[in-house]
Specification:
With 193 residues, this protein is α+β, with helices and mostly antiparallel strands. It has 6 helices and 7 strands. 36% of the residues lie in helices and 28% in strands.
Length: 193
């Protein structure tokens, strides 16, 4: 079964959910853990689903490139740690944490920790899952004695930017446009230099 068919089935399921069904989801405990290799396919599907809302601002070619990048989960563990959030054993969110010294040099200082590709299932949004995953990355950066943790986000990700700012991240610099969209680097200082 291809990705498009799976996502269509999932959308139809979500539309059929009642308000009562959605309230039950909110009450389930959240588990955050390192991803297992058996999670990779589900993380790829979740990431594409989570970022799909931005596809209308991209050309079909750029959306295809973004989907390819989002789906390339199996390459993450070589340079970072993929972290997942689960509710009742269902994958509801993911983020990639880069240890100090492994962040991409074109975006971050080499000694910084960073987080990338935060994704939360659309049906679970508004429940603090993105915040919890971001806080997990902040805690790991502190544990790893990083002085700064960075991230990059775009003009399309208004809700995410507000969340990052509430957590103390500050917009640091504007980055080169990607897919024709404005991006910024955000930083959170963890220790005084």
């Amino acid at each position: 079964m291809n990705l498009k068919v799976l996502l269509t089935l999932k959308e139809n399921f979500l539309k059929a959910m009642t308000v009562k069904d959605k309230e039950l989801i909110v009450d389930m405990p959240l588990t955050i853990r390192d991803a297992l290799t058996t999670d990779f396919d589900d993380v790829a599907l979740l990431s594409v689903d989570a970022y799909r809302e931005y596809s209308e601002w991209l050309s079909s070619e750029d959306w295809d490139k973004m989907k390819m990048n989002l789906s390339n989960v199996s390459k993450v563990p070589n340079q970072a740690k993929l972290i997942v959030a689960l509710q009742d054993h269902e994958l509801v969110g993911s983020v990639t944490y880069y240890y100090p010294g492994t962040s991409t040099n074109r975006l971050f200082q080499p000694e910084w920790a960073s987080l990338r590709m935060l994704a939360v299932s659309p049906k679970y949004r508004g429940q603090g899952i993105g915040r919890r995953l971001t806080e997990e990355c902040i805690q790991r950066a502190k544990r790893d004695q990083a002085e700064v943790i960075g991230l990059h986000t775009s003009e399309l990700m208004v809700t995410a930017r507000r969340m990052y700012e509430k957590l103390g991240f500050q917009q640091d610099t504007e980055l080169p446009r990607n897919f024709g969209i404005r991006y910024w680097r955000y930083v959170l200082k963890l220790a005084q230099s």
